[in-house]
Amino acid sequence: MAEKVLLIDDEVEFLEALSERMEIRGMDVTTAENASAAVSAINSGDFDAIVLDLQMPDMNGIDMLKIIRKTNPDMQVILLTGQATLEAGIQAMKLGAMDFMEKPADIDALTDKIKKAQAKKMVIVEKKTEKKVNDILKSKGW
């Protein structure tokens, strides 16, 4: 099953190049060049992972991560940045980011992290489904 990925980055050339490289690896990639396009994509799509740029002109990655966490607390987010700081990395991890990588990201390492994100999401969905089934069984007395 192809990994569904949302790439969010304001650098259009980088976004296109990374998207192509991920699609060659069999991933289903959606891109967003700004915060409003990203929010729209998040609200209308179901992704296994979001790869998010830390520095964007209209909203930084930390603020976008907070929005994602409010609306999709189980979403797996990998932050990418060309200007990594220890402080930003720690803040992102505290907010629930799955990982934090520096640009230019090694495509094999990023692909591996996206596959792990998909597996983690599948475990979360399975646990939620199992809980729902158990709750229904208890409430019906079966």
From TrEMBL:
Stored Gene3D superfamilies: 3.40.50.2300
Record key words, sorted: Phosphoprotein, Two-component regulatory system
PROSITE patterns registered for this protein in UniProt: RESPONSE_REGULATORY (PS50110)
Pfam families: Response_reg
Keyword field contains Methyltransferase: no
GO-annotated biological processes: phosphorelay signal transduction system
Positions carrying 4-aspartylphosphate: D53
Entry annotated with the keyword Phosphoprotein: yes
InterPro entries xrefs: Bact_response_regulator, CheY-like_superfamily, Sig_transdc_resp-reg_receiver
Domain spans labelled Response regulatory: 4-118
Listed PANTHER family: PROTEIN PILG (PTHR44591:SF14), STRESS RESPONSE REGULATOR PROTEIN 1 (PTHR44591)
Protein name as annotated: C4-dicarboxylate transport transcriptional regulatory protein DctD
Annotated gene: dctD_2
